[in-house]
Amino acid sequence: MTDPSAPRPNDDASADDAVAPAAELAPLLTLRDGLPPIIETDADLAAYAAQLAAGSGPVAIDAERASGYRYSARAYLVQLRREGAGTALVDPIGLSTLAPLAEALEGAEWILHAATQDLACLAEIGLQPGSLFDTELAGRLLGYPRVGLATLVEELLGQRMRKEHSAADWSKRPLPESWLEYAALDVEVLIELRDLMAAELEAAGKAEWARQEFEHLLGFTPNVRVDPWRRTSQMHRVRSRHGLAAVKLLWEERNAIAAERDVTPGKIIPDSAIVEAALAMPSDRSALLALKGFHGRGAERYSTRWIAAIREAAALPEAELPPRTLRGDGPPVPRAWAEKDPVAARRLAHARDAVAALGEQVGTPVEQLLQPDALRRLLWTPPRTRQPDELLAAVGEQLTTYAARPWQVELVAPLLRDAIIAGDVEPATTDEA
């Protein structure tokens, strides 16, 4: 599980959903059918599932979590809308099963915004799409500079959305009516937005790109970080390896407490407290609690556990201490390429220029044309052949192993083939010129 300690906006709100100047405000989006009652009994869910199955077309779906409040990433509310069925607000917490809903959704295309934020928590309650359309990803492929839901709704549909409850604690019960209205609005116009964006993709010749991207998303699983404790804020202040061990063990102890209580780890003690304890390495509870920077709701309550972690770290033999840095399985950071491998650095420079030009030409961000990690891995260790046709085929095969989609390989592989060949040629010196 990824570290959920840092509060972050829940869902689809993003920094690009900026509020327009008052004189330019679009009409406020409202619920055309009014606010539906929340579904919190099995009987009500079965009734709506029957309506959903009888509806037509794709299904708009969203989920609300309690990021920044709870340790888990579970869905505390699921919103759905379909033509012929209307909008539903489903509270999965008190329901014995969501099987009727999963059955009703079989064969229907899901419309989500920023699907990777919701697919895992929906799968956890038994809801998995057979096909989907992601409006955020569609916006990226189409080259929209800002792809937050509110921004796209305003730009394409001419209506303004409220986003004031995006970081709310959705585990709260009962849910306030204003929160429920906010949640229902998130699926209110997703169907219309999807239809407009699908037409744009078709007109731009990108419909097949989108189809492959959406199909790829069906297999999405969240990344699990190696040594997530290394993301502790200000950890660079800890110089000793025993101190690093203390950061690790304190982080793991905090994570275990957070999981037990289902609260975000930062609400137990903040990262700053972990760092202060690792710097001081106190040997007893009173010395720990006397540290000026050691604070938090769980600082004193769990002080025995914190001291046990610090003592364990202090007693570790050298061979068991964590390394200062992790050795990754990929290439070095690009800024080090010129020193470590000048030929690879030239390949990278040629490739970056070519892919950037392609992005401008097709109106799509370069990171959508090819994942940056795949680009770096290929150029650091390219195929050995330099015969153009063989190299092109080998580049395509290698990109496919990095999960590049066929449309990406078709567009980018020729550029990378040429960059590999060009990188082998040393630039002429001033004297030679």
List the defining traits of the structure above:
DNA polymerase, domain 1; flat; Nucleotidyltransferase, domain 5; alpha/beta; 433 residues
Word description of this protein:
The chain is α/β, with parallel strands linked by helices. The protein has three domains: 196 residues, Ribonuclease H-like superfamily/Ribonuclease H (Nucleotidyltransferase, domain 5); 93 residues, HRDC domain (DNA polymerase, domain 1, Orthogonal Bundle), CATH 1.10.150; 90 residues, DNA polymerase, domain 1, CATH 1.10.150.80. The protein has 18 helices and six strands. A six-stranded mixed beta sheet has the order 1-4-3-2-5-6, with helices on both faces. Helix 4 runs parallel beside helix 7 and helix 9 packs antiparallel against helix 10. The longest helix is centred in the middle third of the chain and has 21 residues. It is flat, with a radius of gyration of 26 Å. The N terminus is likely disordered. This is 3'-5' exonuclease. GO terms for molecular function: exonuclease activity. Keywords: Exonuclease, Hydrolase, Nuclease. Pfam families: DNA_pol_A_exo1, DNA_pol_A_exoN, HRDC.
